[in-house]
Amino acid sequence: MNKVTPFLMFNDQLEAAIEFYTATFPGSEVRNVAHTGKDGPVSSAEFVVGGQAFMGYNGGPYFSFSEGVSLYVDCADQAEVDEYWDKLVKAGATPTQCGWIKDPFGLSWQIVPRRFTELIGDRDPKKVKAVMEAMMTMVKLDVAELERAYNGA
User: What is the pLDDT of residues 71-117, one digit of tens each?
Assistant: First the structure.
């Protein structure tokens, strides 16, 4: 286990969340699962999603996720953005804006093409501003549109 590991508190959907996350992202696995009682429901688990270790617990209705914490997915290109976006939507996720999408378990994800990070790292503040303004109008991030904004600045 890592020295510091994110700990996610679910209401009662931990098992379904782990199944979805590990099926969706390469480099994922379930490491340990604990059940309530001998044959009871999953109570806690240690799992890896896309190479990142997590601990999860079914904590009941006292806990819910907020956009104050999100999972950032570094996508190589538009095809990868589309792939993850489509898988999340098909699973019941709700798109919000600026590349953010809330999965059916309430956890927010940022599905971000690497090119966006490169474009906003430019030294020309006009180009960065144009890219940021374009991004603010999007739901799912669109690399071609971001590049048009960059090139037009």
Answer: 999 999 999 999 999 999 999 999 999 999 999 999 999 999 999 99
- Strand pairing report for 70-75 and 52-58: unpaired
| Nearest residue to 109 via CA among 140, 134, 79 | 140
- Domains in the chain with CATH codes: 1-61 (3.10.180.10), 65-153 (3.10.180.10)
| Amino acid present at 45 | A
Judge if pTM exceeds 0.90.
Answer: yes
Residue 112 and residue 138: Cα distance in Å, rounded?
12
Residue bearing tokens 């997915």:
73
94 has which bridge partners? 102
Tokens of 139: 């739901």
Burial 95-126 (b: 16+ CB within 10 A, else e): eeeebbbbbebbbbbbbbbebbeebeeeeeee
The number of beta carbons lying within 10 Å of the beta carbon of residue 148 is 14
Burial class (CB in 10 A: 0-12, 13-18, 19+), 88: buried
